[in-house]
Amino acid sequence: MAPVTLNSITKRWGTFVAVDSISLDIADGEFLVLLGPSGCGKSTTMRMVAGLDEPTSGEVLIGGKVVNDLPPGARDLAMVFQNYGLYPHMTIAQNIGYPLKVARVPKAERERRVREAAERVELAGLLDRKPSALSGGQRQRVALARAIVRTPQLFLMDEPLSNLDAKLRVSMRAQLKHLQRELGTTTIYVTHDQVEAMTMADRVAVMRDGRLQQVGAPLEIYNRPANAFVAGFLGNPSMNLIEVDVSDGRVRHPRFSIEARDVRLSGPAILGQRPEDMSVVNSGEGDFDGEVYTAELLGDSVLVTTRLGDELIAVKADKSISVSMGEKVGFRFGRSALHFFSRETGERIG
Ligand code: ATP
Questions:
Q1: Closest Cα to atom 1, ligand 1: which residue?
Q2: Which segments constitute the ABC transporter domain (predicted)?
Q3: Atom 19, ligand 1: residue with shortest CA distance
Q4: Which residue lies with its CA nearest to atom 2 of ligand 1?
Q5: Does residue 264 register a pLDDT over 80?
Q6: Any ligand 1 atom below 6 A from CB of 305
Q7: CA-closest residue to ligand 1 atom 3
Q8: Which helix (H) or strand (E) holds 102?
Q9: For a Cys-Cys bond, which of 20, 80, 201, 300 suits 157, CB 3.0-4.6 Å?
Q10: d(CA 111, CA 113)
Q11: DSSP state for residue 227 in the 8-state scheme
Q12: Please, how many CA atoms are within 13 Å of residue 211, restricted to the half-sphere of its CB?
């Protein structure tokens, strides 16, 4: 186990800045998720921690020691990648035991530790097979077993679940999280899947265009996004973002005007509200009336959308409501969960 510190790390490819001066302290035993859209620099950040890419500037510290000059093999970390990286000609036991063989661990101890690691990920019965004779989920668990067999200081995982089908992903997510808790190993986990981030992370670091946008516990980020980008990236469907004008304690839009007494700002703004904080009411009884554009039964709720100017507004309504496409209904904002962002910078302003 070890804390990890990123000290203003930057990675440039020619003139392109892939990672722009990122500083981050990851605590001993923490599960930190790097989250962001494709190309935002998550993998590059992780590769710099791994030693696979060299920072253009800045320092990486593992266990309090600067590791910039150490090759990956000397950093005492284990990596799990999307494509698992298993050796096809080796058996599962050989695959799992490979890091121990490289480290010249004697055969008897190697066999014992391979068995233990395989039992932890429920693969004990498959040790003599080759990877080609395993399912995707089983291969994923082999990659995990190979990572834990050495009890490294640090796990680095880059989209390790993205090749699995939806159901398996959910169950592997839980297993992986459980395993990390049990082992207490500091983990950096890269994903663009916000559900994975929300469910697994102790803290989430949201990235965009090579920069950190916000770092915090999942609920903290969900409940109080630092800017409109983070607000729009988390949540499914994501937060509604509506251009409004605020003055004299009122929020004005061509289609509605609502009171927002606690809001001190004034001028153009972006109003944010999550779909679950809005409600569908009778026509004439809400903040604005609109036609139902779609109504989808989600099981535990009904997702109702309506057009507001050029935008589609989404509302997660109670599953007991019955509305149909084209019907005119009322939409109401939940007053206690209004978010405001600057139209210029996107930063939270209220
Ligand atoms: P994804 O989720 O798609 O893997 P990511 O957030 O992990 O994306 P990175 O792989 O870190 O993104 O890439 C960040 C940016 O750096 C991208 O625009 C990518 O094209 C660029 N990049 C990555 N590696 C190189 C390289 N070797 N040479 C030039 N540009 C690179």
A1: 38
A2: 4-234
A3: 39
A4: 38
A5: no
A6: no
A7: 38
A8: helix 92-102
A9: 80
A10: 6
A11: B
A12: 4
Task: Note whether 313 and 242 are within 8 A (CB).
Answer: yes
ipTM for this prediction: 0.93
Supply the mean pLDDT for the chain: 93
Nearest to residue 49, comparing CAs of 190, 143, 200, 215? 190
pTM for the whole structure: 0.90
The pLDDT assigned to 172 comes to 83
- Say if ligand 1 is within 6 A of residue 54 CB: no
Average pLDDT over residues 143-148: 90
Q: Is residue 87 in contact with ligand 1, taking CB distance under 6 Å?
A: no
* pLDDT on residue 175: 85
Residues 75-96, mean pLDDT to the nearest whole number:
90
Nearest protein CA to atom 17 of ligand 1, as residue: 39
For residue 62, pLDDT over 90 is answered with yes
Binding site membership of 192 for ligand 1 (Cβ less than 6 Å) = yes
**H/E segment holding residue 34:** strand 31-35
Does the beta carbon of 36 sit less than 6 angstroms from any atom of ligand 1?
yes
Nearest CA-CA partner of 237 in 311, 299, 315, 297: 315
Domains of the chain: 4-225 (3.40.50.300), 233-342 (2.40.50.140)
Using CA atoms of 336, 338, 339, 343 in order, give the dihedral in degrees to the nearest 10.
-150
